[in-house]
Specification:
heterodimer; A: about 325 residues; mainly alpha; MetI-like fold; B: about 300 residues; 2 domains
């Protein structure tokens, strides 16, 4: 599901919003060069300007927008606001009157208790470790692999790319059991990655999505610059490090944000691989501590677990909202 | 004859040297991480899945070939039919709830002249909340007591209290509600992008012909969106057929197996509390599910191909 969703943005024409600022060659000139496909009124949508001037439609639209805003705030934001409020209320308040505004005052202590006594700090740091490792492995595999496939192009590149693409068509469910057994006894090494972060990090690196994204970006790098570097005597490694990577910041940013977010959301795989409670991430611990801590502390823990993903989203909105294929990428 | 053989003997080291000189060795070194990681953690497990479905494994002794025995056992399991029925029910409900809502939201948002970004952020926010946090939070909302969050809201309208996830009839709709809340925003963004790329001249032409707003929706917008609509439909089907976390964390398949889904059944075969994992049955069932999903992906691919051609 995930990979297929991503596919639409990868193998088909890149989304309009993306192609503008993602391609290193396309500066401000790209807009003039592209044929103008819009009508005179660049902003026009279904309801025309003439229609917008009619009183009935004008007020109808205003009403629609008002209802839309109210609906989005109540339904979309509401549960999160409630979580924020409940995590600094007492358990009694939350249970007795879930929608009252702090009947007995604000209780910041919950967050402290969650962070220290419920050991959320430890699970938070475990999650951070998981995310950082998964991110590094993914970036390493995708940049080196994408570079070979797009720039060095050895004879076997086509076959290799085909094999990477093919994994997109295998649903994650097929991998569940055989991948678990592989991690349990890594072929050729005879070691088990159970209870090791490598058991999460290395499989995360086998992401066809990242490799394809990188390759497509590298494909579009200006050939003259690469040729000039080659003439100046830059070897393959030097070229990757000093020429290709500095030009690839936008795509590295995209892969990084989605890699970290995916690691933060991951639940089933860490549940299977990390059996030792001391090294489990938040996603695995939260369902288990539900029965062992007070409700208010539990809600504070939930709040802590949502902060990093929400901050990532608010900080990098454009990545999420401008690429339709990428928007689907974190679904499921 | 001898000369050419000597030449051949000479040319090999020279060609290896030139291969290295042309960067062949560097390419091989650089591609090694990809080959190793994909080989061990992607290609090998995929092949292994196919092999394992015809074997029994208990991790201690060597696996034994059992032919189609795993598949037969899965088919003989009375829970299989329950799981399929529940999964199809979930999928249909998710379609009824979740398919039209993003389209309507996107259509309204597309008419915004100001603050479109703000609305998009609001719509997308639920998508970025980690699924575990979402599900556990909703589990609290679903409290069946009269003071549960949702039952409090119902009581304002003189309704409830409802049992939510605690009754067989309402458990599945409750799961669909959470799933829809956390997924709808992503689809809204896909639709919004598709709607902004509809060419303005089409609407201009419809205006000249005197088309009303409903006529423009029906005759311009929806036909222009038809491929996107098909793509999101199939993506949603592929996603909902693999529903796992909601039933796992909210109901654990209950009450009375009313939310047992196919993926949950696979999980139980392999990692359930019944002692030794039945990995053979789990892979057999996951392969069957995968074959079905592959069919959907095939339709998806055909659709995106024609989508990119228009």
């Amino acid at each position: 599901m995930t990979d297929l969703a991503r596919r639409s943005s990868i193998t088909e024409e890149p989304a309009e919003g993306l192609s503008e600022d993602w391609h290193p060659t396309a500066g401000g000139g790209s807009k003039e060069m592209a044929p103008d496909r819009r009508s005179e009124d660049a902003d026009r949508s279904l309801v025309s300007i003439a229609e917008r001037r009619q009183a009935g439609i004008k007020w109808g639209l205003r009403l629609t927008f008002g209802l839309l805003l109210a609906g989005l705030v109540i339904v979309g934001l509401g549960p999160l606001l409630w979580l924020g409020k409940a995590s600094i209320s007492t358990t009694q308040d939350t249970l007795r009157a879930p929608f009252a505004f702090w009947p007995s005052g604000v209780d910041w202590q919950n967050l402290v208790t969650a962070w220290t006594e419920a050991e959320i700090s430890r699970y938070f740091m475990n999650t951070v470790w998981l995310a950082i490792g998964a991110w590094l492995v993914q970036i390493f595999v995708a940049t080196t692999g994408g570079y070979v496939l797009a720039v060095l192009k050895p004879r076997y590149a086509g076959l290799l790319y085909g094999l990477v693409l093919a994994t997109l068509f295998v649903p994650v469910v097929v991998l569940l059991v055989p991948l678990f057994l592989t991690v349990l006894d890594v072929p050729g090494l005879g070691i088990s990655l159970l209870n090791s972060y490598w058991g999460i990090w290395l499989p995360a690196g086998a992401s066809a999505f990242n490799v394809i994204l990188m390759k497509r970006f590298f494909d579009n790098l200006p050939g003259e610059i690469l040729e000039a570097a080659r003439v100046d005597g830059a070897g393959p490694f030097r070229m990757l490090w000093s020429v290709v990577l500095p030009m690839s910041r936008p795509i590295l940013g995209v892969v990084s944000v989605f890699a970290i977010l995916a690691a933060w959301r991951d639940f089933l795989w860490p549940l299977l691989v990390l059996l030792d409670p001391a090294i489990q991430p938040l996603s695995v611990r939260l369902p288990l501590i539900r029965d062992t801590v007070e409700l208010d502390v539990f809600l504070a823990s939930l709040l802590v677990s949502t902060t990093i993903p929400i901050l990532l989203f608010l900080g990098f909105q454009r990545l999420f909202l401008r690429g339709p294929g990428l928007a689907g990428a974190i679904k499921g | 004859m001898t000369a050419t053989r000597a030449q051949a003997r000479w040319s090999r080291p020279r060609s290896v040297r030139s291969w290295v000189k042309r960067g062949g060795l560097s390419a091989l070194v650089l591609v090694l991480p990809l080959v190793l990681v994909f080989g061990v953690f992607s290609w090998f497990p995929i092949v292994r899945a196919a092999v394992m479905s015809f074997q029994t494994t208990n991790l201690i002794s060597d696996p034994v070939w059992v032919g189609l025995h795993n598949f037969q056992r899965v088919f003989a399991d009375p829970l299989l039919l329950t799981a399929i029925r529940n999964t199809v029910y979930f999928t249909l409900l998710a379609l009824v709830f979740g398919y039209p809502i993003p389209l309507i939201l996107a259509a309204c948002m597309n008419e915004l002249r100001r603050a479109k970004g703000f609305y998009s952020v609001l719509a997308y926010l639920p998508v970025v909340v980690p699924p575990v946090a979402t599900i556990l939070l909703w589990r609290i909302f679903y409290d069946a007591g009269p003071n549960g969050a949702f039952n409090t809201i119902l009581s304002w309208f003189g309704l409830g209290p409802w049992p939510w996830i605690q009754s067989q009839a309402s458990a599945m709709p409750s799961l669909v509600l959470v799933a829809t809340w956390s997924a709808a925003g992503a689809t809204v963004i896909i639709y919004l992008a598709a709607m902004t790329s509809i060419r303005g001249e089409l609407y201009d032409a419809a205006d000249v012909d005197g088309a009303s707003i409903p006529q423009k929706i029906w005759n311009v917008m929806l036909p222009q969106l038809r491929y996107v609509l098909l793509v999101t439909l199939i993506l949603q089907l592929i996603g909902t057929f693999q529903v796992f976390m909601e039933p796992f964390l909210l109901t654990n398949g209950g009450p009375a197996n009313s939310t047992l889904t196919v993926l949950l059944l696979i999980y139980r075969y392999a990692f359930g509390s019944g002692g030794t994992g039945d990995f053979g049955a789990a892979t057999a069932l996951s392969l069957m599910l995968a074959a079905f999903l592959a069919l959907l992906s095939w339709i998806y691919l055909r659709a995106t191909r024609s989508w990119s051609e228009t």
